[in-house]
Amino acid sequence: MHRLTVAALRRALTRRGAAALALCLAGVAAVPGASAAAAPDLPTVRAPYGAYMAGAYAAQTGDHEAAAHYLGAALARDPGNAALASQAFLSAALAGRPDAARLAARLSGDPLAAMTLANAAVRRGDWKTAATRFASLPAEGLTGLVRPLLLAWCEAGDADYGAAIARLDRAAQAGAFASIDRLNAALIADMAGREAQAARLYAAAAATSAGPPSLRLAQALASFAARAGHPAQSRAILVALVAAHPDLGIALPALERAAATPVIGSAADGIAEAYLTLAGTINRRQDPLLRRLLLRFALHLRPGLAAARMLAADDNVQDKHPRAAAALLAAIPPDDPLYAPALLQRANILIGLGEGRNLLPALAALAKAHPHATEPLALAADIERAAGDNAAAIRLSTAAIARAGQPLPARAWSLFYARAIAEDHAGQWKPAEADLREALALSPGQPYVLNYLAYSWALRGERLAEAERMLRQALAVDPHEGAIIDSLGYVLLREGKLAEAMTTQIHAVHLAPDDAEVNAHLADIYAAAGHKLAAEHQWERALSLHPDPKLRATIEARLKAVAAR
After folding, report:
1. What is the pLDDT of residues 22-74, one digit of tens each?
2. In the predicted model, is pLDDT for residue 508 greater than 90?
3. By the 8 A CB rule, do 190 and 198 touch?
């Protein structure tokens, strides 16, 4: 082949939409969790330098629990080493270990250590100590943005609501975080029962918010409207949210029900929200550790903050820690208003791991509870197809298509694409070809569909000139997709354009050096061009990359045929 599976397609589409949803979840333009993981059974390293090296390696690979274990052991043997103390603290904080606060106490002037100590005070209800710690944060940079929020919530925790609101009003006038400052001031006024003041502040927060509505702003506004006896206004706010962020559409009924309850139940909740907001302002690629630690802080103070779990899970997926991501999402209970989108997010992750079958009952229940939603059925179809039950996959995809409505929306192309793959795997090529054409009719130029259809024709030796044209059209949309380049190389081979096929396929191998199929296709081209030794070497390399049983048998047969000549 090279045709993208539905799971690969979903991952690609999810990556493209992640940034917008992340901003929505965070309320602005890793392995965090609610509590410390159980300490793993790690071997003891007695030499201090060995413990340090083991800890440094674990930190580089993202195993923060092991890093904290080994760096802590190294620090115990070299307690005066300030640099080592800083590293041990950071790993302990990222791992959520209880000794993070003890290590933080050694680090005078470290903002993250100050936040850790302040958080411990917040959990004790010691608002004065927490405020002192937060006041030590630098007044510029990122901490300068969040510092007024943290201090104001400490004042609210001490029931000094007037001072808290006045502080945020001054911060809002500075302009950097105006909408967020005003929203937090409104939340504090709301918590204090100052309804008229809260109404003015909520209106000001909405007026100064730029871009599409964020989840937390929409929830706060909708909750205040619902509790003030304006259900139609509350619903309109949430409908506007879903219009801007369609991935939250399945959560709309639950969000409406949740609007009867305030989004903030305590000052500690407010501080957790402040950490979530700050995490959302940080570019994940620029400072992933800081973002991860802030999400850890948020969940430490408010374990049930589903938006933080979803944002942290997305970061974990991008950092190639899918199991940690799935574990974060699994802790979101069914009564949470974000349960449905979180379940879909988790299903996407487990499909990529080949472990989705356990979620089939939950997806079936979700589909029943949301009779117009296509995604639960589509994901269940992906799971069944990956498990080899193509008949079930076809049935579920058909049910999802029936829910898509008439006329069919453009986004329904992915449902036809998914059904086509199941039909193709079931040996039903004609229905699959018809579905692929329907997908292209709904989304002309869709590169994944062009690739699948063109490659399928090439496998059958049909419509080769049209297949080549379609693949070049797909590459014009997505020029760096290795799967499409590989398909083009194969089509050029079938057309007898060996020199161009070789150049194209070498480029595909450079883009996907560890893909057994891509390497095997290059070997096929070498063999067709008469380069026997190069072909044998490339087939051997493809075998070393753990091909599936069908491809392995094909490669081994070709190696035997070449050896027999």
Report:
1. 556 666 543 333 333 334 556 665 556 678 788 788 778 778 888 888 888 88
2. yes
3. yes
Nearest of 261, 262, 271, 263 to residue 158 by alpha carbon: 271
- Reported pTM: 0.84
Gap between the Cα atoms of 493 and 503, Å rounded: 11
Helix residue ranges, H only, 404-515: 413-425, 429-442, 447-460, 464-477, 482-494, 498-511
Residues contacting 152, CB < 8 A, separation 6+? 163, 164, 165, 167, 168, 184, 185, 188
Q: Which pair of structure tokens corresponds to residue 43?
A: 């071997």
Model pLDDT, residue 42: 60
Rounded to whole angstroms, the Cα distance separating 441 from 437 reads: 6
pLDDT of residue 29: 42
Query: What Rg, from alpha-carbon coordinates, does the chain have?
Result: 27
- Residue % of the chain over a pLDDT of 90: 72
Contact 389, 360 (CB under 8 A): no
What does the block give as tokens for 229? 């006896």
One-letter amino acid of 271: I
Q: CA–CA separation, 370 vs 343, rounded Å?
A: 13
Tell me the C-alpha distance between 541 and 520, whole Å.
Answer: 8
The chain-wide mean pLDDT, for the chain, equals 89
Of the candidates 375, 329, 322, the one whose C-alpha atom is nearest the C-alpha of residue 351 is 322
The mean pLDDT value for 272-278 works out to: 92
Mean pLDDT of 335-350: 96
Determine the Cα–Cα distance for residues 137 and 146; give it in Å rounded to an integer. 9
CA dist 404 → 143, 374, 423, 521 (Å) = 46, 7, 20, 38
C-alpha angle with apex 409: 403 to 411, nearest 5 degrees? 95
